[in-house]
Amino acid sequence: MKYVAALDQGTTSSRCIIFDEMGQIIAVHQNEFRQIYPQPGWVEHDPEDIWSSQLDSLKMAVEKANIDVKDIDAIGITNQRETTLVWDRESGKCRANAIVWQCRRTAPIIEQLKTDGYTEEIARRTGLVPDAYFSGSKLKWLLDNDPALRADAQNGKVCFGTVDSYLAYRFTGGACHVTDATNASRTMLFNLKTQTWDAELMRILDIPSAVLPEVKDTSCVIGLLDKSILGREIPIASLVGDQHAALFGQACFESGMAKNTYGTGCFLLMNTGSEIVRSSNGLVSTMAWRLDGKPTYALEGSVFVAGAAVQWLRDELKLIQSASESQYLAESIPNNGGVYLVPAFTGLGAPYWDMYARGVLVGLTRGSGRAHIARAVLESIAFQSLDVLEAMQHDYGTPIKALRVDGGATANDFLMQFQANILGAEVIKPKITETTALGSAMLAGRAVGLWNDTELKAIWKSERAYSPAFTPYEAAKHINDWHRAVERAKNWVDD
Ligand code: ADP
After folding, report:
1. Whose CA is nearest to atom 26 of ligand 1?
2. How confident is the model at residue 41 (pLDDT cuts 50, 70, 90)?
3. What is the CATH number of domain 3-243?
């Protein structure tokens, strides 16, 4: 039996999952690590924590799997995206803490770019809506705030990288400074069309080219695991951003296929094939992956508050004791009784983009109880996802045939069934819901010839499909009422 190890470096934990050649999970090890909040709105990670937690997870997972290291054919690395690191090319020593994707410190840089009229230019070149999330402004901030760092960056003595890039450097013993096209597409420095670092964006953000990594395909051997780690060199055969990995792990290989990850927020990606689809609804165009030099593109959208609304129900309202209880409450009543929640706690994202919106609970009557509120919370997750999916369908031009789902909240059958009901298409949960790690393993296994395209397709298996049960009239009525509720949430705060 052959194996692939997937290293999944997330925002709060580093994990390693070992898959066998059937695509089955053999062992998992996970280490949480420290979040650093130096100031309100700032988020950092200690690069040494990222490295040591990830290294340990690999060693521990291999130990738990109880397999011979020589049977591990490949290693894949998938990662929290956009988080920005800088390190010395020679020593590998980091010059600053990692600036995490959530960190808002560069919002003024982005505001300035918008004021200077660069929004369209950035969107055209990168597919992105300019935002402090993306690595470009974070790297600029690091260079602007440390003249010695900028000088060294100009002289080629410093490497910039996202987490994939940094881990690739560390795991190969400093042998490579690379990233892949999916991670590059989240920097706001990468030209989606030409598939290269964009000189104009580098000029606008004042980034020297010497600091940037080489951009590799998403499935290819980028280097060998340093022999001192497991006693043997193993090909590191894929770098891929976590959401792109999940799209691959859901086997959404064809244009028009989409996945939704239901976690704290929701992350939706739709494969749009070899075409860059430009959104007229505020979605971003991004990479799906790049294989054998050929780019496949995607549309991406997210829901800010999804599972987080269930946490709110539990921790703030204290209407439930556990997330799973929301399902029993929702199912204890025959319908929503006309109650709708719009959890615009931090404003509304795609397709509304209203930062002044706030949450509303509407349609209450004397008979409304906690079951109605719980049900409204779950339905709101599906409605918000539907809004993003409808934007995608609109931009792409054809309806989605089926939605593949993963993430913690897919444990909720009520939510999944309701999603299918209002989408009017099947919602399908796979057997292996660890789709991010699986996608990373599949991309790495593909690069070393462990799986061909037919075999990759066969690894994905459906566990359960939810078929729509609403009539088109019922679905339209619900969606219309939801949109009426959204109208009441819009433009609420005035600061
Ligand atoms: P993340 O990766 O964002 O931390 P997970 O994929 O682990 O998220 O999912 C956790 C989220 O899913 C939490 O916000 C939680 O409230 C929600 N969740 C977990 N189980 C259920 C459930 N049975 N019903 C509804 N929501 C759930």
Report:
1. 409
2. confident
3. 3.30.420.40
Q: What is the pLDDT of residues 435-472, one digit of tens each?
A: 999 999 999 999 999 999 999 999 999 999 999 999 99
Q: Is 246 in the pocket of ligand 1 (CB under 6 A)?
A: no
Q: Are both 3-243 and 251-495 of the same fold?
A: yes
As a whole-number percent, the residues of the chain with pLDDT over 90 amount to: 89
- Residue 307, ligand 1, Cβ within 6 A: yes
- How many residues does this entry show for the chain? 495
pTM of the complete model? 0.93
Contact 164, 92 (CB under 8 A): no
Catalogue the long-range contacts made by 128-132 (C-beta closer than 8 Å, 24 or more residues apart). 128/186, 128/188, 128/284, 128/285, 128/286, 129/282, 129/284, 130/188, 132/103, 132/104, 132/105, 132/106, 132/107
**Site to substitute for ligand 1 among 12, 242, 310, 316, most atoms within 8 A of C-beta:** 310
CATH number of the domain located at residue range(s) 251-495 in this protein: 3.30.420.40
User: Where do the H-state alpha helices sit in 22-162?
Assistant: 47-65, 107-115, 119-126, 135-144, 147-154
Give the residue, by CA position, lying nearest to ligand 1 atom 7. Answer: 408
Residues 348 and 265 sit within 8 Å (Cβ to Cβ): no
- 390-409 pLDDT per residue, tens: 999 999 999 988 899 999 89
> Is 263 touching ligand 1 by the criterion CB < 6 Å?
yes
Q: 368 in ligand 1 pocket by Cβ < 6 Å?
A: no
Q: Tokens in use for 360?
A: 């509303």
Which sequence spans correspond to the domains of the chain? Answer: 3-243, 251-495
How remote is the CA of residue 12 from the centroid of ligand 1, in Å?
A: 14
